[in-house]
Design goal:
Gyrase A, domain 2, five-stranded antiparallel β-sheet, two-stranded antiparallel ribbon, 7 helices, 7 strands, 25% strand
């Protein structure tokens, strides 16, 4: 019901069209939500030698700060069926665990190499969300939930203008 109400608000505001095929952003909607879409730099499957916590691991590079504790984001991913979440932040040309600010390569040099090859375009402050799950559907649901929560502040700012 919440999704339906939100879609209706977006439609009334002129940001969305709804037809038999689903919902699509209008030109105004694309313009309004482009900053959020640009915040998601890359999403891809990832094979980590040591940090793997399920058969499928997906990762997303997000140009935003994670403002809540890591455990909170982990709980969001697990509610979607994921088995694990790792959040890293790019700091001074290295990926560091968000919760401890420790460089990933100190404990997991092989995983650090895999991540650096998969995500070579890190900028200071970027967050890398890594979600593992038993299957791609649950890994994807967990990852997109975490992405959504990371960019939540900007989303609320944009949606607040619809009220």
């Amino acid at each position: 019901m919440q999704v339906r109400l939100l879609l209706e608000r977006l439609r009334r505001a002129g940001f969305l069209t709804v037809d038999r095929n689903g919902a699509s952003l209008t030109q105004a909607g694309r313009g309004n939500y482009a900053p959020l879409l640009r915040a998601i730099k890359t999403v891809r499957r990832l094979g980590l030698p040591a940090l793997i916590a399920g058969p499928v691991t997906l990762a997303a590079l997000v140009a935003h700060q994670a403002t809540r504790p890591v455990w909170w984001y982990r709980d969001q991913a697990i509610r979607e069926g994921a088995t694990a979440l790792i959040l890293l932040r790019y700091v001074g040309e290295a990926w560091c665990f968000l919760h401890a600010a420790e460089r990933l390569g100190i404990q997991n040099p092989l995983d650090e190499r895999v991540i650096e090859e998969a995500f070579p375009m890190g900028d200071d402050g970027n967050v890398l969300a890594i979600v593992s799950a038993p299957d791609r559907k649950r890994a994807g649901a967990g990852l997109w939930r975490v992405i959504n929560e990371i960019i939540l502040l900007n989303r609320h700012r944009l949606l607040g203008s619809l009220s």
